[in-house]
Design goal:
This protein has 495 residues and is of the alpha/beta class. The protein has a domain of 251 residues: Rossmann fold (3-Layer(aba) Sandwich). It has a 6-stranded mixed beta sheet with strand order 3-4-14-9-10-13, sandwiched between helices. A 5-stranded parallel beta sheet has the order 8-5-6-7-15, with helices on both faces. It has a two-stranded antiparallel sheet with strand order 1-2. The N and C termini lie far apart (43 Å). The structure holds pyridoxal-5'-phosphate. The site of pyridoxal-5'-phosphate has 17 residues, from helix 12.
């Protein structure tokens, strides 16, 4: 059955998957959502016999219904190839009775590679299907990982350009180095004087600037978004939940149909929303455990039904989760309102105006199965040390937030004791300083690359290529700008 995409903010005519991918965001400012969540049409047992690419096809074909089988398989083959350092693509690692789903084996050693290695191919295919002749300009705000993953995905891809804005003082030194060393004539990387929300708001403003769009169209350009709001990011993320379940079944860790819990370290709410979609496709998932760092807006939301961004923004050791406006939550709000765009628009207007909104008691019913937890900076560091000391497994700071949430959930009394997948979103090598300091403060005095080597020794894991490359790579981007000047920077690069 064909899936069409509606906006979360109005009843404008639904669009096909390829159109939603090209647009990124709906003209009314809403996010695209599927008009129904398709059901898996393969048995869990059949899926258990498949490799990552095959599972990805079985999931994505149900959402991207205007893609032909050949188009979709070509996109999947180009994305999930030897850019990943393991043929499993998303391996599961058992530690202390939980299963850590390692989503960091792609080219930038963080989970955003899972979606951003396929998005350029979905986008180019979508452009061809819609007779688009303009160049596609990817405009992205990043809190660290998206930027490099998007740059790596789009660099050198014909018919595209990519511009990345990041908070100048809000990403780790290694994240910054990864971005500013990006090669490719079609790339631009700019540090803004502000935080991630400022960057994201600035990008949204440029997107909704009609005059600029017309000016660019005349020159043969059009914007699209690689941010996690693009449905072409969300759909590929559903795949690894199905894959993880299938692998647990294949390995005899669970029985067919047995429910599992998932714990997801959350920022923009994209990753955990994909788990919610997987669950609604019929994948046996029990609890969806949403883990936040000290920017615990979502924790408060699940507890109280009020989303309130009026609070201090905290810089933590898990910067990719330092977010006060979780854009993808809007999709969940829309669904639990009964796919009601008017109700959702009202709440988003309140968020925009007063910085907060409260959902109805009826809507809260739709949150059943979600649990929110948060980990303080001390708890996050303690969890890294605890897990390392108990079994030698070294996790990064984001994964540690999730792992700490799991410990809290187990103690809470509401846990049903199910087998649990902890989503592991970054390699510890990407955040070596925080990780090593958590294990022992004596590492604090060492240089970044010395730490990387020490970490390799402790974890008994080879230093990933992504890190080796930036040891010596020259800086090719040194632009900075004020938030007010983002638009001019964009015009300057394109014209
Ligand atoms: C982006 C990111 C997250 C948060 O994912 P969302 O989909 O934004 O919730 C968590 N960990 C890492 C390492 C990330 O890069």
């Amino acid at each position: 059955m064909e899936v069409l995409y509606n906006s979360t903010r109005s009843g404008i005519a639904p669009v096909k998957a390829s159109e939603a991918i090209l647009k990124g965001l709906s003209e009314d400012g809403g996010l695209f959502v599927p008009d129904h969540i398709p059901a898996l049409d393969r048995s869990l047992r059949e899926l258990a016999g498949m490799d990552y690419r095959q599972v990805a096809y079985e999931v994505m074909k149900l959402y991207l219904t205007d893609f032909t089988e050949e188009e979709l398989k070509t996109c999947i083959d180009r994305a999930y190839d030897d850019k990943f350092d393991t043929g499993e693509i998303a391996p599961l690692r058992e530690a202390e009775g939980a299963y850590y789903l390692e989503l960091f084996h792609g080219s930038t050693i963080a989970f955003k590679d899972m979606a951003l290695s396929i998005l350029p191919h979905l986008m180019i295919t979508s452009a061809r299907k819609n007779q688009i002749r303009n160049q596609i300009v990817i405009l992205t705000a990043t809190s660290g990982d998206t930027g490099k993953a998007a740059l790596a995905g789009f660099a050198g891809v014909e018919g595209t350009k990519i511009i990345v804005f990041y908070p100048k003082n809000g990403v780790s030194p290694i994240q910054e180095k990864q971005m500013v060393t990006q090669k490719g004539d079609n790339t631009l990387v700019v540090g803004i004087h502000g935080n991630f929300d400022d960057a994201q708001t600035g990008v949204k403003k440029i997107f909704s600037d009609r005059e600029l769009a017309a000016e660019l169209d005349a020159k043969g350009f059009q914007f699209s978004s690689a941010n996690s709001i693009n449905i072409g990011r969300l759909v590929p993320q559903v795949c690894y939940y199905v894959y993880a379940y299938a692998k647990l079944l294949a390995k005899g860790k669970i029985a067919e149909g047995e429910a599992i819990d998932v714990v997801v370290p959350t920022g923009n709410f994209g990753n955990i929303l994909a788990a919610y979609y997987a669950k609604n496709m019929g994948l046996p998932i029990g609890s969806l455990i949403c883990a936040s760092n000290e920017n615990k807006v979502l924790y408060d939301f699940f507890r109280t039904g009020t989303y309130d961004r009026n609070r201090e923004f905290v810089l933590t050791s898990s910067p990719s989760m330092d977010i006060l406006i979780s854009s993808n939550l809007e999709r969940l709000i829309y669904h639990i309102a009964g796919d009601d765009a008017d109700k959702n628009r009202e709440l988003m207007a309140a968020l925009n105006g007063q910085g907060k909104y409260e959902i109805t008691a009826e809507m809260r019913e739709g949150l059943k199965g979600f649990y929110g937890y948060y980990a303080s900076e001390e708890e996050t560091a303690a969890e890294i040390r605890r897990l390392y000391e108990s079994c030698g497994y070294v996790i990064d700071t984001h994964t540690a937030v999730a792992s700490a949430a799991l410990q809290k959930h187990r103690k809470s009394g509401v846990s049903e004791g199910r087998k649990t997948v902890v989503v592991s979103t970054a390699s510890p090598f990407k955040f070596s300083r925080s990780v090593m300091n958590a294990i022992d403060e004596k590492y604090d005095s060492m240089g970044d690359f010395e730490l990387v080597d020490r970490l390799s020794g402790l974890a008994k894991v080879k230093v990933p290529d992504a890190i080796e490359e930036i040891r010596t790579a020259p800086v090719v981007h040194d632009r900075q700008c004020r938030v007010e000047d983002m638009k001019e920077v964009v015009r300057g690069f394109l014209m």
